[in-house]
Amino acid sequence: MAEAAESPGDPRTTSPRPLMRDLKAVGKKFMHVLYPRKSNTLLRDWDLWGPLVLCVTLALMLQRGSADNENDGGPQFAEVFVIIWFGAVTITLNSKLLGGNISFFQSLCVLGYCILPLTVALLVCRLVLLAKPGPINFIVRLFVVIVMFAWSIVASTAFLADSQPPNRKALAIYPVFLFYFVISWMILTFAP
Amino acid sequence: MTLPQGVGSLQDGQLSDASSTSPAHPLATFFHLFFRVSAIVTYVGCDWFSRSFVGCFVTVLLLLSFDFWSVKNVTGRLMVGLRWWNQVDEDGKSHWIFEARKVSPNNITATEAEARIFWLGLIICPIIWIVFFFSTLFSLKLKWLALVIAGISLQAANLYGYILCKMGGESDISKAAASFLSQTVFQTAYLQRQQ
């Protein structure tokens, strides 16, 4: 497709090809979640593509039903979807009501991207579940989920904590903790 | 989140098309309609295509996302010269910016056809999704509700963004609506008199 020349008014357009630009931005944010350090990238250039991909992946992998069943995992799929998006929206509203200095979509962006460690945990859990069931199986999965849960919390607090007024930090972080806890619980208790 | 409208105008940085009757961006026009219509068709026909709720959900969601991205980033800019985006500045305040390109006089006929297709596609599809919303609600097929709500939000977001771009300097919605209506009524009356 022919690309019109971009005016200098749009600072996000350093390259004239919007698809590659957006894909690179998504990739960069995934890297920032994996190696969290104080940086503004997740907040400044927010996008919701990463959270969408992660949410769909999580929902697909958390299905229980068999393939030929009429009710093939339908309820679980929609459940996970709704829990993630509704939970993220609720946390965002909560942090805004507490006087946070972050916009609606930026908060959704951070919360969504920080689901990445838990998605990795789910992948690992599914692999581990292929092995012999037993207490060791469970302990391995528990360990992996706990580590990834901690990683998610650390990553999201690194980005979100600054935007809260100092005496409200715990009140703002607690729902995030609960959100990732619910997702971790769904992952840990998953049995195909 | 503040919503000030910063309106700029771009110089027409595009080469004028040699043929002024055919649309200048056939590929963009095709894709503008393709994703939206495919999403609607897949949603309606999913009972015939496959029995899998999940497959249908994911397909429609993917089509809606592709449509959102392509309308926002590509077809709006190419077909009607409008664009909108969000910018977060140093102190964390987010601004929504809406821009409209100054129309060059040599491409008017091609631009009009494209503009008509663009706006028709942009307006009709959210209305169809709203109809789906009510039909899902009243037939109590609630598991589809998440998908329909996602569809409405994605399509309405683009519609709202482009309407704000189009209104440009008119910060009063009612004035813009009144002028648009009066134009339409005048055209209709004129056509009727001609017949």
UniProtKB/TrEMBL annotation, chain A:
Segments crossing the lipid bilayer: 48-65, 77-98, 104-131, 138-160, 172-191
Origin: domain of life: Eukaryota
Record-level GO cellular component terms: Golgi membrane; trans-Golgi network
Keywords: Membrane, Transmembrane, Transmembrane helix
Compartment(s): Golgi apparatus membrane; Membrane
Keyword S-adenosyl-L-methionine: no
Stretches assigned to the Yip1 domain: 33-186
Alphabetized Pfam families for the sequence: Yip1
Main location: Golgi
One GO term (biological process): endoplasmic reticulum to Golgi vesicle-mediated transport
Membrane-related topology note: Multi-pass membrane protein
Family of this protein: Belongs to the YIP1 family.
Protein name, entry field: Protein YIPF
Organism: Pipistrellus kuhlii (Kuhl's pipistrelle)
From TrEMBL, chain B:
Major location category of this protein: membrane
Source taxon at top rank: Eukaryota
Keywords: Membrane, Transmembrane, Transmembrane helix
GO cellular component terms, semicolon-separated: Golgi membrane
GO biological process, one term: protein secretion
Keyword Transmembrane helix: yes
Name of the protein described by the UniProt record: Golgi apparatus membrane protein TVP23 homolog
Organism of origin: Pipistrellus kuhlii
